[in-house]
Amino acid sequence: MPTEATKVVQATTLPTKFSLAANYDPELVPLLAAYPVDEVYGKFPADGISGGRPRYLATPLSEADLRSYISLLDSHGIAFNYLLNGSCFGNREWSRSWQKKVSSLLDKLGDMGVSRLTVSTPFLLELIKRRFPEFKVRVGIYAQVDTPRRARFWEDLGADAITLESFSINRDFSRLAKIRQSVQCDLQLIANHACLMNCPMQSYHQNGFAHASDNSGSLFIDYCLMRCSRLRLDDPAQFIKSAWIRPEDLGVYEAMGYTTFKLLERGIPSSELLRRVKAYSEQRYDGNLADLILSYGFKEPIRKESHWSLRHFWKPLQLNPLRLKPLLNLASLQGMLTPLEHNPVSVDTRKIPADFLDGFRNRDCASLDCQTCGYCERIAKQAVSVDPEYRTKVLSQYAEIDTLMATGKLWNVSTRSTAKEFLDKPDCDPSLVAASYRFMEWVNGYFGGTRVVRRFISAETRCPDVNSPLRILDIGSGSCDIPLAVSRWARARGIPIEITCLEVSDQAVAIARRRLALANDPAIHLLQEDVFTHQPSEPYDCAVSSMCFHHFDNEQILMLLQRLRSFVNNRVLINDLRRSPLASFGAGLLLAVTGAMPGVRHDALLSIRRGFKIRELKSVLKRLDHVTFSVKPAHWFRIAAVIKFKKRN
Fold it and tell me: Of 132, 134, 51, which Cα lies nearest the Cα of 86?
């Protein structure tokens, strides 16, 4: 029963009417005539003026098709409302070309028999009312009209009707009553949406839609839809919290003076649109409420433009289209691309209490913490169910996509790869191990790896507080090619050094021992030990690691440097790979020219993807206390970081 707040506005004598989404099916129109459908709303797939849906969701429609459709609607007493409801025009509205374009479009629409428009921006409303006063203009939901003050602003500006911000206020009866009292124009509520209540992504989402419908050609990924869909699967109570209106509850709103209701969604099958019109016209529905509020998951296919995925997602200059496969898989799983045999989400209307709305009468949901209230959660436990297999598959796909997008892998601008190289495996093919180390020795010799270490050791020998001979720890020595080269260089210059080499790989140690035996270099000592457990009998003067740190994650890097602090007196050199698309391209070219075997190519390119950007390594090192450091680029896509431990008091 209506409370005092909802009784403030007495029942109107105006009959209830519906504004229905268009799918441009001419066979549906005569069936709609049996119900109080006052208008159908839609727009061209591309008219150069922003709208409220991305271009790829549009139903194919030519000018001749729309003209014929409008004529058919008119013959059944149904108007057509053309949408110019984008929330943003990218500042193009201040250009002469846009002004000409919108004027030409409005002339054309008038000639086609359109008499109603929907807008979401105040300037466009003023423009139409001044230049094209013959049109009736409704303010769309993207204008976010949710207070009496906002409603009066739009009415004073010339609005003939306003769609209120139904996502947040459909169940705020006190506010609805006050808004209804504040204006004389028609007010419309969206009855069957599934949007999050007080959605924090609303502005971002509607602006994304605006720019995805303006013919700019930019790729649009509907992050917001994916995020809210995931939230609903994680928390099924969100299906109850969404401020939809049950068909059975229309009478409550009619008693407050609200008699115009908008029904979503554009482009969906005719049978689904008819189901929605019938349910709300009869003010009764005993089935799955999800069938009325969701915009996907139907048994029948949705009509789209030919080659729509190529048209809108083949953007090789913006990202690798092949990386969009997980997104397409997700869309298919949810029935956005292909029909589903049954809706995996069930909101059983029979298990929603008849007095459901009474639970919101004395609650200010915008001010409440849902966790302390629990009203919607209790109803969801009874009424909402999600197919477990569907839920698991979809959430798993969302997790994969989240990783692809948030890390940047979708655009190949990701953070460091965490994939494992073949060499990381204990059972790696010995021939691949040998070939890999031969390639690394050649690269270190000719492309700067050894040079970086020589410069560091040269600087260390000039420090006044170092010992003689200079005691050096070499971490992850591999085949010991760099320690041997540095030792030869130092001996030729009369610089006394001792190098302790640490390596854990059995196969690498075997290769290194053969090389050391041939070299017979007394300055080098090889230990098969893990640096994370190594404990020397006396400290080292400095430490060096070449092409090793990219095998560690950030936490391991910090842990290792903290350990080195306890037995390295001066500085540590990290001599590693600098990650970039150009580095990957150059390495790929080099590998192709040298005829490297596939496993070597795999590990070399993966090593670059596991490498560092300068800002990344700096960010990690900033987390260390009592150190100074420098991180600089070196030749041939190397990165050289030098860390100096400060002496603690």
Answer: 51
402-426 pLDDT tens trace: 988 988 888 877 678 888 999 988 8
119 and 205 share one domain: yes
Tokens linked to 470: 């200079």
462 part of a folded domain: yes
How would you class 480 by CB atoms within 10 Å of its CB: exposed for 0-12, middle for 13-18, buried for 19 or more?
A: buried
Q: 3-state DSSP call for residue 303? A: coil
Residue 184 and residue 144 share a domain: yes
For residues 153 and 294, membership in a common domain is answered with yes
Look up residue 375 and give its amino acid: Y
Consecutive H or E run containing 116: strand 116-119
Instruction: Read off the pLDDT of residues 256-285 as tens digits, 9 standing for 90 and up.
Output: 999 999 999 999 999 999 999 999 999 999
Model confidence pLDDT, tens digit, residues 330-372: 988 998 888 999 999 999 999 999 999 999 998 888 888 888 8
Count of all residues that appear for the chain in the document: 649
Say which residue the tokens 């909802």 belong to.
Answer: 6
Residue 424: other Cβ atoms inside 10 A: 12
Q: 122 is in which domain, residue-wise? A: 4-315+332-390
Return the bridge partners of 629, or none: 643
- pTM (predicted TM-score): 0.78
- Decide if 372 contacts 281 (C-beta within 8 A): no
627-634, strands of its sheet edge to edge: 524-527, 497-502, 470-475, 542-546, 571-577, 638-645, 627-634
Report phi then psi at 376, rounded to 5.
-65, -35
The CATH number assigned to the domain holding 441 equals 3.40.50.150
